UniProtKB/TrEMBL annotation:
Protein name per its UniProtKB record: DUF3533 domain-containing protein
The species this protein was found in: Streptomyces seoulensis
Alphabetical keyword list: Cell membrane, Membrane, Transmembrane, Transmembrane helix
InterPro entries in alphabetical order: DUF3533, T7SS_ABC-Transporter
The UniProt record lists the keyword Hydrolase: no
């Protein structure tokens, strides 16, 4: 035996230079790392590069409160004409879904996150527009654009641009009509300039959120913490249990060990890992809330409900990780990374709204876990824990995910056990 050779090794010593020339050693790492880099690049960048170009039926409320009588020679008042113009232009390209409604309903829809913004035509709109053609036109008619920061800063910003653009089109249209009247043509140059673009747009917050809410991003980052806690915690339990039972080596720095293999079938191993996942999720969930709410001061008006929802979310994700690892073995961690991280983040709708991403991401968002968790967390943090704001959907999808994780994991392990595909490996000699 060569000097310094470990007692359990056999054969001649080799160097790294000799091994680098073996193409089979390169094959699997090269294929997997290339696929991961390519797919992650396409997924993440493909979802955020063209939000305005990908707009598809973004929900925005349209409130017409104008009660004025039609101006001379017109059949409808100015507010009604403006609303019709906005609805017709919005329905032509499918980018915006204008939803006509009352002011009270618009406020309710903003408070549940069902609309991303609103454009309000005031009750005196026709009267103020008609006054522009009088001797001194000093009071400008105004439209109000309501924002909804609870749906996320980008979604609220996109809705704000939509309402601002619609208001500008209304203003230009009114200006053309008024400019053709004899009264305006005889008016001063300053008056004609004012009437060319007469409508003022006032922006207000339609549904305010707390100052410690990250401008509507705290729900996304909190949901991301839950996903990472479930994913990373599940894999830590998986690797730790395998090492403790002797099915994987333990290597810390220069120290390497292999415990005696414990005789346990796959199904019982999965039970053990899932039970530990459930126990450790109590700790990780509590620490997340301690750090975000107590230490950092994140606005969380319903901490008790948030903790229960968070625990169930972390538990379900952890059980999903254990089920995938049990079914796919060593590839399980890569598979679960794609399921819970790679596909989930760009389809969550928490940073870039799903109405502003390509259709593939909207499809992923219908079932990917982070979309459901973000909807539930957002409802708890910003929308008074309303069921119709996403909390009901979050609970339903957590229950479905919990059942699928158990069914898939135990179906796989019981199948392997019945086929005699045990994990027992020869002990090192």
């Amino acid at each position: 035996m060569a000097s310094g050779m470990p007692p359990h090794a056999s054969g001649p010593w080799v160097g790294a230079g000799q091994l680098l020339g073996r193409w089979k050693l390169w094959l699997m790492p090269a294929v997997l790392s290339s696929l991961v880099a390519l797919v992650l690049s396409l997924l993440y960048m493909g979802g955020i590069l063209t939000p305005e170009g990908s707009l598809h039926r973004m929900p925005v409320a349209l409130v017409n409160q104008d009660t004025g009588k039609p101006l001379p020679g017109q059949q409808a008042n100015v507010g009604t004409q403006a609303a019709r113009s906005i609805l017709s232009s919005g329905s032509s390209d499918g980018r915006v879904r204008w939803r006509p409604m009352s002011r009270a309903r618009a406020q309710d829809e903003l408070a549940s996150g069902k609309v991303y913004g609103a454009l309000v035509i005031p009750a005196d709109f026709t009267a103020t527009v008609g006054a522009l053609a009088t001797a001194d036109a000093r009071t400008r008619p105004a439209l109000t654009a309501l924002t909804n920061p609870g749906v996320g800063s980008l979604a609220s910003s996109l809705a704000g641009r939509i309402t601002q653009s619609a208001a500008h089109q209304v203003s230009v249209g009114i200006g053309k009509q008024l400019s053709a009247t004899p009264e305006v043509q005889r008016a001063s140059a300053a008056t004609r300039v004012l009437i060319a673009d007469p409508v003022e747009v006032r922006t207000q917050v339609g549904h305010p959120i707390g100052a410690h809410s990250g401008l509507g991003l705290s729900a996304f980052y909190y949901s991301l913490l839950l996903v990472l806690a479930g994913f990373i915690g599940g894999n830590i339990v998986h690797n730790g249990v395998d090492s403790a039972l002797g099915y994987a080596d333990t290597e810390i720095g220069p120290w390497h060990s292999r415990r005696p293999t414990v005789h346990i079938d796959r199904t019982q191993t999965l039970v053990l890992k899932m039970a530990m996942t459930a126990g450790l999720a109590l700790l990780t969930t509590s620490l997340i809330m301690l750090a975000t709410i107590v230490v950092l001061g994140m606005d969380a008006p319903r901490p008790g409900l948030l903790w229960v929802f968070s625990y169930c979310a972390v538990l379900t994700l952890g059980l999903g990780v254990q089920a995938i690892n049990a079914a796919f073995g060593s590839l399980g961690q890569l598979v679960s990374m794609f399921v819970f991280i790679a596909f989930a983040l760009p389809s969550s709708g928490a940073t870039v709204p799903l109405e502003a991403v390509p259709g593939f991401y909207r499809f992923l968002g219908s079932f990917e876990p982070m979309r459901q968790l973000a909807a539930g967390v957002r409802a708890i943090l910003y929308f008074d824990a309303r069921a119709d704001a996403g909390l009901e959907r979050g609970w339903v999808m957590i229950a479905i995910g919990f059942a699928v994780a158990l069914a898939f994991g135990f179906a796989a392990t019981r199948y392997y056990d019945r086929r005699g595909l045990h994990r027992m490996v020869p002990q090192p000699s």
